[in-house]
Amino acid sequence: MKKVEAIIRAERLDEVKNTLAAEGFLGLTVYEVKGRGRQKGIALQWRGVKEYRVDLLPKIKLEVVVEDKDVERVVNILREKAYTGKVGDGKIFILPVDEVIRIRTGETGKDAI
Fold first, then answer.
1. Is 36 a residue whose pLDDT tops 90?
2. What is the value of pTM for the model shown?
């Protein structure tokens, strides 16, 4: 099993979430986070006069745990639906998951996903 983590733009969340659900990936966890990457934030103006820098931008982090065979499908959905073509579209991380246990039933492995 793998955990696919993605940092994406907030405005892309609904399309990503709906497409994942339509493809059968119902379980996911979503966090509101702040961060920066190569874009190093943005410059804004306050009342049209004073410019200030915002270097931690709001993003969405989502996590999906899937079987190894489904990783490519999930990554393709994320790449397609989170894409805007602009700096700051985000990143995808893939991590190994040793075990999953459903607390309520005690199911383990893929049955617990």
1. no
2. 0.85
